[in-house]
């Protein structure tokens, strides 16, 4: 059996790299389109200060959550109650101020909204909470209750 000997003629053929470049661009497009980037919320510095706890306070003494209740008012606004404190109608800036006073970044703020409260009012309450040092947030829907937020 006889094999063809190596010749220099095989080296003279040009190499077509067009298909290789096409495959590289397809792979590049695949990786760019399937990659997941960090969400912008994780990249934003919240810019709030950490204050020291009062002398003798332990982490177990602090509440796990703060309840913010939204109820409809007769004038089409929202009545805001944080804990037992009733805020002024549509007092979203006041809500931010109260949460800044509380200043428990580890606690979750639970926004419990009445079914008749609009999405815009809930979104304004979310914005007010996120403007405070308390950045953990949870949403809840209240059962039908009288429009004073009584409870």
Describe, in plain words, how this protein is organized in 3D.
The protein has 4 helices and 5 strands, in the order ααβββαβαβ. It has a domain at 62-141: Nucleotidyltransferase, domain 5 (2-Layer Sandwich). With 151 residues, it is an alpha/beta fold. Helix 4 links the parallel strand 4 (108-113) and strand 5. The protein has a 5-stranded mixed sheet, with helices on one face.
What is the CA-CA span between the terminal residues?
Answer: 99 Å
Oligomer: single chain
What fraction of residues sit in β-strands?
15-25%
Number of helices: 4
Q: How many E strands?
A: 5
**Radius of gyration (Å):** 30 Å
CATH fold-type name of the domain at 62-141: Nucleotidyltransferase, domain 5
User: Helices and strands, in N-to-C order?
Assistant: HHEEEHEHE
Briefly summarize what is shown.
This protein has helices at 18-34, 40-43, 92-102, 119-130, and strands spanning 65-72, 78-82, 85-86, 108-113, 136-141. It is an alpha/beta fold and 151 residues long.
What are the salient characteristics of this protein?
single chain, 151 residues, alpha/beta, Nucleotidyltransferase, domain 5, 5-stranded mixed beta sheet, 4 helices, 5 strands, 18% strand
Q: Which secondary structure elements does this structure contain, and how are they paired or packed?
A:
Layout: H1 18-34, H2 40-43, E1 65-72, E2 78-82, E3 85-86, H3 92-102, E4 108-113, H4 119-130, E5 136-141
Parallel strand pairs: 1-4, 4-5
Antiparallel strand pairs: 1-2, 2-3
């Amino acid at each position: 059996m006889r094999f063809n000997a190596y010749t220099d003629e095989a080296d003279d053929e040009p190499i077509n790299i067009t298909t290789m470049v096409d495959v590289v661009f397809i792979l590049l497009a695949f990786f760019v389109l399937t990659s997941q980037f960090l969400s912008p919320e994780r990249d934003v510095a919240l810019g709030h200060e950490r204050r020291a706890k009062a002398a003798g306070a332990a982490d177990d003494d602090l509440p796990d959550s703060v309840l913010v209740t939204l109820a409809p008012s007769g004038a089409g606004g929202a009545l805001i109650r944080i804990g037992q404190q009733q805020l002024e109608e549509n007092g979203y800036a006041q809500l931010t101020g109260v949460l800044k006073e509380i200043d428990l970044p580890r606690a979750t703020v639970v926004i419990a909204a009445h079914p008749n409260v609009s999405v815009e009012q809930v979104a304004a309450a979310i914005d007010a909470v996120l403007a405070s040092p308390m950045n953990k947030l949870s949403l809840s829907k209240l059962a039908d209750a009288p429009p004073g937020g009584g409870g």
